Amino acid sequence: MIYGYVRVSTKEQHEDRQLIALSECGRKIDKIFMDKQSGKDFKRSEYQRMLKKIKKGDILIVKSIDRLGRNYNEIIEQWREITKTKNADIVVLDIPVLDTTQHKDFLGMFISDLVLQLLSYVAENERKNIIQRQSEGIAAAKAKGVKFGRPQKYDAKEYIHIYKQFKEHKITQKQAMEMIGASETTYYRIVNEIKAIIQNP
């Protein structure tokens, strides 16, 4: 049996490029398994289903090594599980040297393992860089006042006293907005609700 494996990190990403690559690989693929989740580990439902089916003589085809996963140690472990324990083959389309159907001699296996470890390290390093860039981006956004999470719910009744201070010219509108802790749009919405409460107590 020849299996194909496709992975995209989120449901919004498209798997088209990987599917096209598999369809043009020159082998008739019997079944394609696809996961739509992160490659940080191998706890993916379709990957695990595929792993249970693979047996001696089967071939697994992926477009690139990072589609298999992004964790250095786990990629190496899964590679050995498939090629050594199950005696199946793996073909990485983007890297011809990572084709265990073609390199059965000692030198071929040595080169393949060396390239695999290098690429696995690069994949994991890129994953760590992405996480770091995300953290830095969030920190920078927070420093600029961007708020994350669900929008805060405001009860207009709680801010009537602030509105009265503004109307009595004890505080400025800017101070009222800061005391409420709302954006300009939300502030005016709260003010309109307060006016309605005052008019119809």
Helix proportion range: 40-55%
Number of domains: 2
**What are the low-pLDDT stretches, counting only 5+ consecutive residues below 50?**
none
Q: How large a portion of the residues is in β-strands, by DSSP E?
A: 5-15%
Q: Give, in spatial order, the strands making up the sheet with the most strands.
A: 2-1-3-4
CATH topology (level 3) name of the largest domain: Rossmann fold
Order of helices and strands: EHEHEHHEHHHH
Assembly category: single chain
**The CATH top-level class label of the largest domain:** Alpha Beta
CATH-defined superfamily of the largest domain: Resolvase, N-terminal catalytic domain
Q: How many H/I helices?
A: 8
Key structural traits:
201 residues, alpha/beta, Rossmann fold, 2 domains, four-stranded parallel sheet, 8 helices, 10% strand
Explain what you see.
There is one protein chain. This protein has 201 residues and is α/β, with parallel strands linked by helices. The chain folds into two domains: 2-129, Rossmann fold (3-Layer(aba) Sandwich); 156-199, no CATH class. The protein is 52% helix and 10% strand. A four-stranded parallel β-sheet has the order 2-1-3-4, with helices on both faces. Strand 1, helix 1 (16-23) and strand 2 form a beta-alpha-beta unit. The radius of gyration is 28 Å and the shape is elongated.
Walk me through the topology.
Blueprint: E1 2-8, H1 16-23, E2 31-36, H2 45-53, E3 59-62, H3 65-68, H4 72-85, E4 89-92, H5 106-143, H6 160-167, H7 173-180, H8 184-199
Parallel strand pairs: 1-2, 1-3, 3-4
Concise synopsis of the structure shown:
With 201 residues, the protein is an alpha/beta fold. The protein is 52% helix and 10% strand. The protein has helices spanning 16-23, 45-53, 65-68, 72-85, 106-143, 160-167, 173-180, 184-199; strands at 2-8, 31-36, 59-62, 89-92.
